[in-house]
Amino acid sequence: xxxxxxxxxxxxxxxxxxxxxxxxxxxxxxxxxxxxxxxxxxxxxxxxxxxxxxxxxxxxxxxxxxxxxxxxxxxxxxxxxxxxxxxxxxxxxxxxxxxxxxxxxxxxxxxxxxxxxxxxxxxxxxxxxxxxxxxxxxxxxxxxxxxxxxxxxxxxxxxxxxxxxxxxxxxxxxxxxxxxxxxxxxxxxxxxxxxxxxxxxxxxxxxxxxxxxxxxxxxxxxxxxxxxxxxxxxxxxxxxxxxxxxxxxxxxxxxxxxxxxxxxxxxxxxxxxxxxxxxxx
Length: 281
Fold this sequence. Notes:
Blueprint: H1 3-63, H2 73-98, E1 111-113, H3 115-132, E2 136-141, E3 148-150, H4 152-168, E4 175-182, E5 189-195, H5 202-208, H6 229-240, E6 243-249, E7 253-260, E8 271-272
Parallel strand pairs: 2-4, 6-8
Antiparallel strand pairs: 1-3, 4-5, 5-7, 6-7
């Protein structure tokens, strides 16, 4: 081996050691940052849980009419909605503070979920907002729609985010509908969130799937936001391994379709519906 070759080899080994050291340092820094973020999320969830427990305690007194009956039954209905929403937030906080240990093989724990109850609760959650904005918010649930084997908290998050987004971008006088039906050919159970709002261009739709991205669409109601709703939905869909398709057209509206049972992981990407866009009816 020549002197130049030996020197070159020595320098290459030194460069490799430097690169390995830099990589180890970078990985260590990344792990530390992840630990900081995880702890911060847990701290935030912990702080939220305390007032939520108080809210739940008081709403239980109200919904149970422990101190006497409501003079106006509408108030009891509002208390029920507050109670349900608080429970949903508490469930999310519990996931943040304790987490759920899953494996690639095992996936998330599933249980029978009554989608009808979820839909009714989501309708109740947004009904007042829809009324204020003069939007028709409704549901259409097939008789005998079966229970879904999935995680109820995540499914509830998905529906809430999709309905919230639909209300945000649907003009006064428009309609938002949640459907629960079954595919007669495959037997799959399908949840659909459909609106006749502003819709999106193809480029806006792709941007909306990215976290913290604001699209060119402007809410007719002056809503703000961080642009995370649809990106949260795509993440939850992948976690649940369900099939989510979408169709949207500018000025026509948007349809999201969740199909059960689960499909292969590689199919769990948000993608256009196979059929042509069906206008709201």
